[in-house]
Write a structure and sequence with these properties.
Helix 8 packs antiparallel against helix 11, helix 11 runs antiparallel to helix 12 and helix 13 packs antiparallel against helix 14. The chain folds into three domains: 134 residues, Orthogonal Bundle (Butyryl-Coa Dehydrogenase, subunit A, domain 1); 118 residues, Butyryl-CoA Dehydrogenase, subunit A, domain 2 (Beta Barrel); 142 residues, Butyryl-CoA Dehydrogenase, subunit A, domain 3 (Up-down Bundle), CATH 1.20.140.10. Strand 2 and strand 3 form a beta hairpin. It contains 15 helices and ten strands. By secondary structure, the protein is α+β, with helices and mostly antiparallel strands.
Length: 454
């Protein structure tokens, strides 16, 4: 059987060596001009990586390598056999051994280099999360949820807790022994209420902390807690007895505490490798030195945590969308119709170009906001909404490109289609996040109203 001749150009396009191709035409300019307009072909991933500061370039490459070696091969298995203890243990152990579990945080509280202190805390986080979720949204969430659980500890600025809790956890991780944190705010009777000021004002909290000798007794339940069943410690938000949401306080509950249990895991539509756990607190004793950020400061700590975590959620959406796009591109280059690769057809080229455009736009928005030193509520919420909505569209387009093959689990795109939907829901639904934008900008709207003449 004769070997097929190599394709020198796609249908509708000139070969790069043709005199009318920009690649070839640019060679006519003098060297000085070529230095500012001419460029060599390079993958988009490499182009984007090259503009990052060197420490962030290294982080992106290291995380990508880990994700492709450790997460991608387990992606489909983690989806069909969620909550498999042996597989999750192996992933977490490898993440700890490689440093990936905490490499977005500078030492001594993470495994990242000191040079990361020169950049906003969000920037390395979003770079890392995209790479993890491009390999698998579920396994990426397992590792991202751990990072979320540590945010209240870091933001509280309590040196004693950092030294007594976070530092030993990192030392254990550095030895290759995972130590996992989780973040617990959602209650069975309240979802978006705990992420919106007006809703919280009328909410009757059900997880309550009662004063006792030397500490507090927690009673209540939290639901949909990512990684709650594997967490060694959970930052739990509870109201003080007899008070409302204004008394919300963050308590650190450690695994094995009497009265604390993981009741059950939900069977989810997507991101199934990561558990969504219901936690029960039955007179769980929390000593005073495990109060995070001070009494009645939990609401502020919660909102600050959400501001810091919503841009990484946008990066989760981007990663899932990129994974779907890459799988779709692989498909249209391998599969043929009428003896021609699908990528030869202009309609397919237009669809692929739209996916490239969408993912690149998402990344530009995420990196722009993540590079800023202070994560504002409006920017974080806009990023989360825009990117999760766009990511859903990318995954839908990828499904359409695969046609009948799109429903097959083995093609990854079907899984991405289910995985991405969750990014529009957690960390506040997109409707709540749109209202969060208005809340953050309301002063300028009020100024406009109040400045009207007459």
């Amino acid at each position: 059987m004769m070997e097929r001749d190599k394709i020198k150009s796609l249908s509708g396009h000139l070969p790069p060596t043709d005199p009318l191709s920009p690649r070839q035409a640019f060679q006519c300019f003098p060297m000085l001009t070529r230095a500012i307009i001419d460029y060599q072909p390079q993958a988009l991933w490499d182009q984007d990586t090259a503009i990052l500061p060197e420490p962030l370039q290294r982080l992106r490459r290291e995380t990508r390598t880990f994700a492709q070696q450790e997460l991608k091969p387990r992606a489909l298995l983690g989806d069909v056999t969620p909550h498999d203890a042996e597989t999750r243990s192996a992933v977490l152990r490898r993440a700890a051994e490689s440093g990936v579990l905490t490499n977005h945080i500078p030492q001594p509280f993470g495994s990242g280099g000191f040079e990361l202190m020169d950049y906003s805390a969000q920037w390395p986080a979003v770079i890392k999360v995209e790479e993890l979720c491009a390999a698998c949204g579920g396994w990426g969430l397992v590792l991202a949820a751990h990072a979320l659980g540590t945010i209240p500890l870091l933001l509280a600025g309590d040196k004693k807790i950092l030294k007594r809790i976070l530092r030993p956890a990192q030392e254990r991780i550095a030895r290759g022994e995972p130590y996992i944190f989780a973040f617990a705010i959602t209650e069975p009777a309240a979802g978006s209420d705990v992420e919106d000021g007006e809703g919280a004002a009328s909410l009757k909290p059900r997880t309550i902390a009662k004063r006792t000798t030397g500490g507090w007794l927690l009673n209540g339940r939290k639901v949909y807690i990512s990684g709650g069943d594997i967490a060694d410690a959970v930052t739990v938000f509870a109201a003080l007895e007899g008070e409302g949401m204004a008394s919300w306080t963050c308590f650190l509950v450690e695994k094995g505490a009497s009265g604390y249990s993981a009741v059950r895991n939900e069977l989810k539509m997507g991101q199934r490798a990561s558990s969504a756990t219901e936690l029960e607190f039955d007179d769980v004793f929390v000593p005073d030195d495990h109060v995070v950020g001070g009494l009645r400061n939990g609401w502020a700590l919660n909102r600050a945590t959400l501001n810091a975590s919503r841009t990484p959620v946008a990066a989760i959406a981007l990663g899932i969308a990129r994974g779907a796009m890459e799988a779709a591109i692989d498909f249209v280059c391998r599969y043929e119709m009428a003896g021609r690769p699908l990528i030869e057809f202009q309609e397919v080229q237009l669809a692929v170009a739209q996916m490239v455009l969408d993912t690149s736009s998402m990344r530009g928005m995420i990196w722009q906001y993540a590079s800023r030193p202070v994560p504002t509520q409006a920017n974080a919420s806009m990023c989360k909404v825009a990117c999760s909505d766009t990511a859903v569209r990318v995954c839908e387009n990828a499904m359409e490109l695969l046609g009948n093959h799109g429903v097959l689990h083995s093609n990854y795109v079907e899984k991405s289609f289910r995985d991405v939907r969750l990014t529009q829901i957690y960390e506040g639904t997109n409707q709540i996040n749109r209202l969060a934008v208005i809340e953050d900008l309301q002063e300028q709207f009020l100024d406009a109203i109040n400045s009207r003449g007459g």
